[in-house]
Write a structure and sequence with these properties.
The protein is of the alpha/beta class. 42% of the residues lie in helices and 21% in strands. It has 13 helices and 13 strands.
Length: 433
Amino acid sequence: MINRKTKKKLRRKNYLKHKLEKVMRQRHRYNKKKKCKSKAINFLPKIVQSKRNNKIVELLKKEKFIKKVRRKSKEDRVIIDIPQVFSFIKNPEETILTLKKIFYCGNNKKIKKIYFNYDNCKELGLCASLITDLIVVELSKTRKIGLSGTAPQDRLARKMFNITGLPKHLGIRNISTKDTETLETLSNLELSDMCEKLVEYYNNCLHTQGYALSDDGKNKFGKMFGEVFDNAIKYSGNLGSWHALGYFDRPEEDKNYGKCRLVLMNFGNSIYEGLKAEDTTKYTKKQLERHTKKHHSFFGINFNEEVLWTLYALQKNVSKQRIDKQDTKGKGTIDLIESFMAIGAEINEEKPIMSITSGGCHILFDGTYTLKEIEYKDGRKVPIIAFNDKNSLNHKPDSNYVYAIKNKFIGTVISMEFYLDRQYITEMLKKGD
C-alpha cells in the first residue's frame, strides 16, 4: 500500500512530466511554424542578363538611397514590414520608402538576416516586386544575407508574389500555368535584344486572345520600346542600368480576357537630371527655361521645376537632342502612352492604369485625362496630354495625377497594368477600318 507521501511525489512527478510534454509540443509546433514561414534560403537568382556588371549598389550608396531601420540591441536580424499597397502606381511614397529600408538593411554589415513581412500586403505591384528583387540580387553578390519571411495573405497579392517576386528567384515556388505569360527579368541587354524580347512577350499575350502583331505592328512596337530604352542607355549615367519585366494571366473564373503587366525602368539619372545635363542641346534648354519662367507662379509643395520638365518631356518631339523645330526626335514615350490608352480594355469597372515615376516626380494615367490633338497657328497638329480640363500645357496639371514626391527614386519607372479582351480588340479594330 502506497503511503500519502509517496502518492504526493508520484502526482508531482506526473505533473512535471505532463508539463514538460506540453512545453515540448508547444516548442515543436513553434519550430515547425517558424521553419515553414521564415526559413532562410540561399539566394540563387534566375535573371536573364548580359555579362555587363550592374552598378546598382554603388549608385544607391552614392545617392544615399537609405532609410534607417531600428533593430533590437545586439540582434543581427531585421524585419521589413511590406506596406498594404506595395506599388509604384498607387503608392509611390511608401513603396520607395520601403525600398530604401531594404537597401539600408542589405548594405549594413551588422545585419545578417532580413525577414520580409508581407502579412499586411493586400496589393503587390510588379514594379515594386522587380525593384525589390534587383536590389536584393545585387546586395547578395557583395555579401551573404539570410533571407526569410512570409507571403501575402491576400490571394491575388500572393499569386503575384509567388510568380514574380522573391520566392521565384529563391526557388521556393513557381505556380506558372498555361494561362500565364511571363517575361523573365531582362537586365542590361543590347538594345535590339531588349526590344525583340519585349515585342515577343506582348505578341504572346495577344495570342491568348486569338490575335497577333502584324509585321508593321512588330516594327512599331520595337521602335517604341527602342526609343524608351535608348534614352535610358544614353542618359542614365555611368552607373546606370536598365531592366524590364512582364507578367500576364487570365482569371480562373473567366478565360475570355487577361491582365497584362509590364515594367520598363532604369536606375540612374531621372528624366529631369537628364535634361539638366550639359549635353542637352541649346534649343531644348531654351524651351525648358521658357517653360520655367512661364509657370513659376504655379510652383509650390506639389509642383516644381522637376515636375514641370518631366511632364513636358513626355510630349511629342521633346528630346534633349532636338536641335530645332523641324527636328522630329522624341516620340517614344508619347507613342507608348498612346498605344497603352488604345489597347487596354476596361473590365469589371477596372480601368487600364499606368504610371511614370522619375526622380522626385510621379505621373498617373488612368484614362481621366487623355491624349488630344492640338492644332497650332502654323497648321501643325500635335498630340498633347496636359492633365487638366483644358488640356493645355499653359495651365497647371491636376495635382492628383501629376505631383512631386518626397522620397526620390534614383532613376525612372514606367509601370503598366491593362486588360486584353478579345471582344474589345475586335471592336477596336473594326472602328479603325
